[in-house]
Adenylyl cyclase-associated protein (Pan paniscus), 217 residues
Amino acid sequence: MANMQGLVERLERAVSRLESLSAESHRPPGNCGEVNGVIAGVAPSVEAFDKLMDSMVAEFLKNSRILAGDVETHEYQEDRNDLVISETELKQVAYIFKCEKSTLQIKGKVNSIIIDNCKKLGLVFDNVVGIVEVINSQDIQIQVMGRVPTISINKTEGCHIYLSEDALDCEIVSAKSSEMNILIPQDGDYREFPIPEQFKTAWDGSKLITEPAEIMA
């Protein structure tokens, strides 16, 4: 998913090429000639690819044109604080790539959200049924208005997550990241809790035990 746009482009180019090959291979029997070394009929590779495109890959391409438009709608936005996606569906995935100094609001309920290579991005969303992933990013602020089961933070410097009352059971999974904080609503305000960045591991005689390390002053 982290390179969804490149995958979509490669698949679309392959489809275009194979469509042209398929058209050539469907010429009338009296004038079939040779297509890619195959005499007459449809080349087996083209036929197999057509079947594939009619099933799972076709569905992937359909779902990759995410939410309010193509994937490009959520890429390379800068200094934008008015980005809003209001028409959403439960099966959709929001992919946000290389956005800087911007704020995006996603209304309704979506399957998952991916933030990839973004800087100084603010994300506000209502509900996610799957996961919110933050990858290779810096200074990200996320506000959960409804519910989300899991938030993953990977290779990110600075991530602040504001949870709602309904999202307090959210699981936070982090790796190779720093300056992460969870903000919990309390008495009309938020209380900040840092996510541990250092851990200590010890052998207890039968297995390894890992727990957050207390930072010594």
